Amino acid sequence: MGDQLGGAVITGLVVIATAWMTVFRGTEQKRRCGVLMVLIVGLLAGLPVAGIMLVLTQVAPEGLGPLQTALYGGFVSSALPAELVKLIVLGLYFGGGRRGKRRREIGPVEGARAGAAVALGFAAIESAFYLALEGGWATALLRAVPGVLIQTAAGVIIGQAMGLRRAASTDTFSVSRAWIQAALLHGGYGFTVLGMIEISYLQLVSRNNLTPLLATLFALLIVITAISATRLVRIFRVVAE
User: Fold this and answer.
1) Dihedrals phi, psi of 25, to nearest 5 degrees
2) Contact, 123 vs 176, CB < 8 A?
3) Could you give the CA distance from residue 131 to residue 7 in angstroms, rounded to a whole number?
4) pTM (2 decimals)?
5) First CA to last CA across the chain, in angstroms?
6) Is residue 24 within 8 Å of 32, Cβ to Cβ?
7) What is the span of the domain harbouring residue 82?
C-alpha cells in the first residue's frame, strides 16, 4: 500500500509539472479555465477507458508468449482504446465555433495545448490503473516519468494535427496519420514496459540469462521517451515564443 501511495504522489507531481510546462505556461488567463476543463474531461474520459483496459486484459488470449503478451497489453488493451477516445474528445472540443472569432482562434497551438490537457488526464488515470494492478516502485517510476511524457506527446500529436486541419479547412495534414503516430508511440511504450516485466518474471522463473533482451527493451524505452520529449520541447518552444 505504501509503494502504491508513493507512486501515486510521484505520478501526480509529474502530471502537475508537465501540465504547467505544456498547458498553462504562456496561456492567456481567459483561456486557462478552458484548458483546465479539457484536462478534467480527460480525467473523466479516462475512467471508462480504464474499465475497457481491465476487460481487455481479462479476456487476453491464452498461450501467449512474453513478448506477445506485451504486444497485446501495450497496443490492444491500452494504446488503441485510449488514443481512440482521445480522438473523440478532441473532435468534440474542436467541433464548436465553425465561424467568426472562434474560428480564427483555433489552430495548431491551441490544438497542441488541448491535446496535452486531454492526454495528461488519461495519463493520470492509466498510471493509477497500473499502480492498482501491479504496484511497486518500478511500476511507479516507469509510469510516472516516461509514461506521462509519452502520453502527453501522443495527445499533442493528435491535437496539433486537428488544430491545423480545423484552422486551414483542408485535408493537407492527415489527422488519421497523426492518430496512427500517436497510437504507435503509446503502444510502443506500453510494449517495452510490459515486455520488461514479462521478461524479468520469465528470467526469475526459468533462471535463464535474458539480460540482453531486457537491455534491448530498456534501450527502446529510452528512444521512445527521447522522441516524445524532443517533440514536446520543439512544439512548446514555438508556443513560448
Assistant:
1) -65, 125
2) no
3) 7
4) 0.85
5) 44
6) yes
7) 2-240
